């Protein structure tokens, strides 16, 4: 964790990625020991029961075994291999951007009885081990009302395996799914450890909610981000779609499908922060993720009739499609809480203040107006559920209550139920665009007697647009479930129970 206010998000990411190929080999959680190496990636991010999934392996171990385990209330081993012959394959210098191009090492038959879920493939050989993960989607026969689409695009955007990620600079505006993930190690406790954005952090954000939901009796189907775009009919059989944790990178196809789903009466819950921040595109049959980010002028579609697909900020005037229209909130009016030297830990850090306790989402919590909730006392990388990165909206206050102005794209009908403090670091150049965007919005749509706050907030709110959209404006909501916070537990139960009927 950064220990100085002088440490910025950019510093942290660059430090984490330092060393290129050496960094990924040592970070690959016991994947390299001595002269033995072992690395693996799946040939698809998700699959259906009854299909076969290919795995690509490079190792100096003469033999290795593979074990497939479903993540759930309790881990469930569903498949184990016989000893497999190892083979080493060279890693191309452009592996990060164009894939490893290793041959298929083995295939796993996905049983028709396998439940939808997140599955971890663990390989052991030569005294070392490594992991990757994949998702088994649901079928019409499962009849689950909830679809949890995992932030697999974001995990790949931060993945530095092979030396580069989408955070290595505009020289590298693409990343390939055909390479290993850097997987965070298994948790030693419920919510302990420090979140590293360069890991595929399903254990940080996704697993706590998965475990809580199954222990609480909720049936959930799962998919990868890009399945929203690749499977046109996927959403039709669900009542509620979930975004959890750090869900930053979305394609236009993903967003189009979800907005259409909501317009037709479907519901969505963003238990996530920094959500739908960047528009991306996919290439190579969905195996490459492209995002030119703030160097959008280098994108081939810039200045063309296809500029709607420009890979830059959703909130950019070039797209004129701020994420607030979908999620109700956005990062320009949020920021950090407890990280990178901003909003230092202390009384109220990581907690929300309640503004409208009479709302049905607060039923059974006993909260009153002005009370705080979300503090976490068990070991955790942050002091409460409002943190790492937070999303908010432009607000005005009347009679002590916050209301959205609507100027930033947030529906004016959104009810702001609670807020938590968040802000940026003045030294963090990666968010200069956010302050600039706020100034442009204010200049384009003047609003009398409105003082624009220098700091932002994580906003917990709800609005209707055909269906219902709930947003928490925080990456860390799952921490509350993992820690057994009774208020967070009650709110999420209320949400699931109401929006799945």
By secondary-structure content and strand pairing, the structural class works out as: alpha+beta
Overall body shape: globular
Give the helix proportion (percent range).
10-25%
Number of extended strands: 27
SS field, number of helical segments: 11
Name of the CATH superfamily of the largest domain: Macroglobulin (MG2) domain
Summarize the structure.
The chain contains eleven helices and 27 strands. The protein is α+β, with helices and mostly antiparallel strands and 501 residues long.
Written account of the structure:
By secondary structure, this protein is α+β, with helices and mostly antiparallel strands. It has two domains: 9-238 and 278-309, Immunoglobulin-like; 331-475, no CATH class. 19% of the residues lie in helices and 29% in strands. It contains eleven helices and 27 strands. The chain has helices spanning 9-17, 21-27, 95-98, 152-158, 202-215, 227-230, 252-263, 324-327, 432-444, 477-482, 486-499, and strands spanning 32-33, 36-42, 46-47, 52-59, 63-70, 76-80, 84-85, 104-109, 117-125, 128-136, 146-150, 174-176, 220-224, 240-246, 249-251, 267-273, 278-283, 288-290, 330-337, 352-354, 372-373, 388-392, 395-398, 401-404, 415-422, 456-465, 467-471. It has a nine-stranded mixed beta sheet with strand order 13-11-14-16-27-26-25-20-21, sandwiched between helices. Strands 3, 5, 6, 7, 9 and 10 form a six-stranded mixed beta sheet that branches. The chain has a four-stranded antiparallel beta sheet with strand order 1-2-4-8, with no helix packed on it. β17 (278-283) and β18 (288-290) form a beta hairpin. Residues 1-7 and 18-30 have low confidence and may be disordered.
């Amino acid at each position: 964790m950064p220990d100085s206010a002088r440490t910025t998000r950019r510093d942290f990411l660059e430090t984490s990625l330092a060393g290129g190929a050496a960094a990924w080999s040592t970070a690959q959680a016991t994947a390299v020991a001595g002269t033995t190496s072992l690395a693996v990636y799946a040939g698809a991010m998700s699959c259906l029961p009854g299909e076969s999934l290919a795995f690509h392996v490079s190792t100096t171990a003469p033999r290795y075994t593979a074990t497939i385990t479903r993540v759930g209330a309790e881990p469930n081993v569903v498949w184990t291999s016989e000893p497999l012959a190892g083979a080493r394959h060279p890693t191309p210098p452009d592996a990060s951007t164009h894939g490893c191009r290793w041959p298929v090492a083995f295939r796993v038959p996905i049983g028709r009885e396998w439940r939808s879920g997140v599955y971890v493939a663990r390989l052991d050989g030569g005294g070392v081990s490594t992991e990757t993960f994949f998702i088994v989607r649901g079928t019409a026969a499962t009849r689950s009302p909830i679809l949890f689409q995992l932030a697999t695009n974001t995990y790949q955007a931060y993945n530095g395996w092979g030396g580069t990620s989408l955070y290595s600079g505009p020289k590298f505006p693409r990343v390939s799914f055909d390479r290993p993930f850097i997987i965070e190690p298994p948790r030693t406790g419920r919510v302990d450890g420090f979140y590293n954005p360069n890991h595929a952090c399903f254990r940080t954000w996704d697993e706590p909610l998965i475990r809580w939901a199954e222990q609480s009796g909720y049936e959930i189907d799962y998919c990868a981000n890009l399945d929203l775009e690749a499977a046109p009919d996927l959403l039709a059989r669900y009542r509620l779609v979930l975004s959890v944790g750090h869900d930053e990178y979305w394609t236009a196809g993903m967003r189009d499908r979800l907005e259409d789903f909501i317009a037709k009466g479907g519901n969505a819950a963003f238990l996530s922060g920094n959500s739908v921040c960047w528009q991306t595109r996919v290439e190579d049959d969905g195996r490459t993720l492209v995002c030119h980010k703030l160097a959008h002028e280098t994108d081939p579609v810039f200045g063309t009739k296809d500029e709607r697909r420009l890979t830059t900020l959703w909130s950019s005037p070039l797209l004129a499609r701020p994420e607030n229209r979908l999620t109700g909130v956005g990062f320009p009016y949020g920021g950090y809480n407890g990280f990178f030297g901003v909003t230092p830990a202390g009384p109220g850090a990581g907690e929300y203040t309640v503004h409208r306790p009479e709302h049905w989402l607060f039923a059974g919590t006993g909260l009153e107006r002005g009370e705080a909730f979300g503090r976490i006392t068990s070991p955790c990388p942050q002091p409460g559920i409002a943190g790492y990165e937070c999303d908010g909206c432009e607000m005005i206050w009347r009679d002590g209550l916050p209301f959205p102005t609507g100027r930033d794209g947030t529906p004016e009908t959104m009810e702001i139920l609670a807020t938590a403090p968040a802000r940026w670091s003045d030294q963090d150049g990666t968010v200069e665009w956010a302050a600039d965007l706020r100034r442009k919005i204010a200049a384009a749509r003047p609003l009398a007697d409105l003082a624009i706050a220098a700091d932002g907030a994580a906003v917990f709110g709800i609005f209707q647009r055909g269906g219902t959209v709930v947003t928490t404006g925080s990456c860390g909501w799952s921490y509350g479930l993992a820690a057994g916070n009774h208020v967070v537990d009650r709110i999420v139960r209320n949400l699931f129970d109401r929006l799945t009927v």
